[in-house]
Structures
1.
Amino acid sequence: MGWPTVLRMAAPTTSDRPVRRPALSPSRAGDFKQCPLLYRFRAVDRLPEKPTKAQVRGTVVHAVLEDLFALPAAERVPERARELVEPAWARVRQERPEFAELFGADQDEEQADWLTSARELLEGYFGLEDPRRFDPESRELLVEWELPSGVLLRGYVDRVDVAPTGEIRVVDYKTGAAPREHVEGKALFQMKFYALVLWRQRGVVPRQLRLMYLADRQALAYSPDEGELARFERTLEAIWEAILRAGRTGDFRPNPSRLCDYCDHKALCPAFDGTPPPYPGWPEPGAVAESAADRVD
Ligand code: SF4
């Protein structure tokens, strides 16, 4: 795997996922850029990966922030957010019972510490903005757009805010502990992806892309312009072309880097004396849609 991702609970399992056209998501595009073989393992072979506590904590924190905005504005206070943590974790566990296995024999204490760390991230959130002061337009928004070349872009946006003037702000919460310099480039790629899709869907270039790093209580704001997003669109088309080329031949090459330390598939990687499973062929429509672990964090 790459840097910690958030495991999105809303994603259906493979068996009940409706058949959809292959699509490009920010995470899968990022995987291919990082390492074509990693892309293959995740999107084509669909090899399972073991979630980390940080990933699952990110899922819980995202769920709490989503629930928080469902409350009346006056109730969106730190204490209420803290109260929402346990129910959110129970919901996540119900949907993915295997997450309970994250904790060892000392389960209670370990889990309590982990839940405390989720509450600390929420404290970090309140250090960045006051959610009583606005109502988001959307939370956990699925966005899709087909480019003229036929590339289908698909992703989930944490939050979209629309000002009375019509200006759009795209917000993404980052809950991982990875150093900022490692995640920033990937995060901006993801945000430009969302900005492009929203621009194409709504005809308005988002005024601001806002990344909120909850662990270190810092926010990064970025304003894209039309020319930049148009160039980014061409970049995505080129990435998809390259994916399709590799998909036809099965030639997904490893690209070793420091990020290999975070890859679940090292044992199968030729860069580490491993042997990949036989290439299963380019997947049928639907199989390259977003998986449960598809967001940079
Ligand atoms: S271990 Fe291999 S497959 Fe994984 S990221 Fe590194 S080069 Fe790619």
2.
Amino acid sequence: MNQLGKQIQEMSQIVDAPPLLPIPKVEVATFCRSEEVTEAIRTAAIDRRMARATVTIKSGGIREATALYGGITSPNLVVVENDDDEVRLMAALEALAVECVTGTKVIVIGRSNDVSLYKKLLDAGVSDYLVMPFEPMDFVAAVHRCFRSSTEEKLGRIVAFVGAKGGTGSSTLAHNVAYAMSNRVDADVLLADLDLQSGTLGLNFDIEVANGMLDVLESPDRLDDVLLRRLAVTYTDRLHLLPATTDFNKFFSLREDNVDHLLEVARSSSWHIVLDVPHIWTQWTRKILLEADEIVITATPDLASMRNAKNLIDFLKKARPNDPPPRLVLNKLGTAKLPEIKPKDFVAAVGLQESVSIAFNPHLFGAAANNGKLVIERAPTSEAGRAIVALAWRVGGTRERRTHQKGLKALLRNVFKRTKPTKPKASSALRKKVGEFKASETGASAVEFALIAPVLALALVAMADLGFAIYERMTLDHALRAGAQAAMADPGATQVYKVMQSTLAKSANLANTTVAAVTRYCACPENADVKPEAAPECGKTPCANSAPELIFYRLDAATLYRPMSAPEVLPDFDLNSSIQVEVR
Ligand SMILES: Nc1ncnc2c1ncn2[C@@H]1O[C@H](COP(=O)(O)OP(=O)(O)O)[C@@H](O)[C@H]1O
Ligand SMILES: [Mg+2]
């Protein structure tokens, strides 16, 4: 990575502790020159953290922005792509500053990778400088840095639990995970029952509250951090509950715009919030799922659950392109006498890579429900208890810890996993359906394979090249050995050369391209390690103590290997080998 990119990334890592929080309601005007920047900003604008910001994309640069804001009020943030040199950029920024109202922030996007330019821009009042190329999330992070305020630092995370259908155990898990989270995270946990009419939070924790969520929803606009703390029931020092009402005379409807405010207040309370979202699809449930930091979908291993889970996961993956996919819990596995889909098949069909499994345990869950005690309280070391604690660790930590496989590794994994033939047994309709769900992924696999195929082909050709190169090098050595054998009889350099050439001629590859050389030279015993080029002429210089001269042959062979691969993958390279023989 380039130097400035690294520095900026390091700076933002220090300042920008995860998780990246939602950006407030601000207006952002971007002026783009290139398709590359336009596309990155377009993707960033649909990120859930930008949901409240209004982003407009215009074509142009600093001059176009200056001209526009000479006539109308400038927005909260102006982002300009620049391709001018430093002198002209600074002058243009000065002109832009004159036209913008006080408080308007500016981000500059450019190709120059120069730390001194970055510092100059910051000195001139620019909020940030993004070096191209950048990822959409880099843009979101830059906007976030512009509007981060000290009060936002304490924001908590929101974990939403939703069932793929009714009765999957989503509420039970939400309650247990919230309890387990309160034992491990360093912040308080607030558990809210959004199943406003038939929520089970009160029952599961064995608490009775007259109003609970009713008070919260009666006038959402009045709600603030202080009121929220007063309305919540303290279950332990760390766990606070907002149960649903049990009064069927009361009717509620939550508006989509109330959700924003509720989540904002809940977040600013610095608590971790666990939301038990009912299995209904409304604008406000959808809004909550789009805004949550973590989503846990609980499903039972049957077709209806699988279909709903797949639709929901597909929707969430598309609507939250910059977030890891939701988590899946497969609950009530092994229910007696019930034909069920295997977890492996279920997970593959809904397009995820992992899931948490919890066995059907009516004794444990039934007793917990009947006694108003949680499974995690009654049996923390049971199999279900351990699965709940593991889930709490995963959703309660920073989301950045999640392993989200990217790039080649993920592609390869998908290709190899999905190209495995899936043979639905004709006898089982259930298996057939699972197969159909899986088959609907094959289009994606084909696209992925199309992407990976050129890389695989290049790798294959490069490997073949390497094999041929090793073979040619062995042939060179073979010719040298033949020459060395001939040299032992001291037939003269020309004769040895002929032997080598005739050996090489038998190799179709090397016949024409190889250069071979034979040098015969002499050296006195006391000077036996002399180089051939520095050796005295044979028989001309007498050796010490009238010792006879030693006779050597030096044989060299070299060839230029021209690979079949493209030069960018594997350029031409030299193969050479040599041998030295002493005639006795
Ligand atoms: N793994 C399990 N084994 C046995 N019963 C379970 C299990 N998980 C949940 N249950 C029971 O299933 C019922 C429905 O659970 P609930 O959490 O209300 O579902 P949902 O919120 O998805 O509608 C409850 O009686 C609960 O005790
Ligand atoms: Mg429920």
3.
Amino acid sequence: MSRVNKSGRTAAAGKKRQARRTGARGGSVTKTKSSGRAKAKLVPAKEREVQFRVRELNAQQKCGAGTSVERLFRVDETVDGAAKAHLVFLDRRHGWYCEHGVECPAVRQARRIGEPNRHHNGRTHNGGMRA
Ligand SMILES: [Zn+2]
């Protein structure tokens, strides 16, 4: 009795385990991580003191007469007393972008100055049609 049971069980169990290990563990682990991180980084819940000061510069003077840059802003960012300067461009083709990239927080600050109508409520269509 005992001999038959032992040999039968161990043989079957061994085969099943091996098959599961090699088959189920594919490369499905890595994909989920990267996409989740990228979005989480954009919304930092910091309680730092961040200040932005935006000044408009002369785009043609800085970038040349034939530039596609329509407007140019210098954004001084101050985080906990440490200053950092940004140059934010409004380009005819590419839209708004900072020298550090499109997702740089300075872009939002410059846009608030550069196109105030879009961020206010929709009241402007009474008198603000002039370009
Ligand atoms: Zn920047």
4.
Amino acid sequence: MKMYTCKQMIYRLSDYMEKELPFHKRLIFRLHLWMCHNCRKYLKQFKKSVELTGKIPKENPPKALIELLEKTFKK
Ligand SMILES: [Zn+2]
């Protein structure tokens, strides 16, 4: 089973939230979430922003967000 990187997780997050991912991809997604503290933290922030704006961003994450994430995930 192929694992996702954190960046792949982020690009699939809106699909995951809208339940558009096929079952096996949701499993991979959840497995990564289970193991990755950073992505859990990111998902939490993502859900919060969905609550605030009332919608799931459909486009790829904005550039500013990517930069923020790269900083967050930097080892
Ligand atoms: Zn991750």
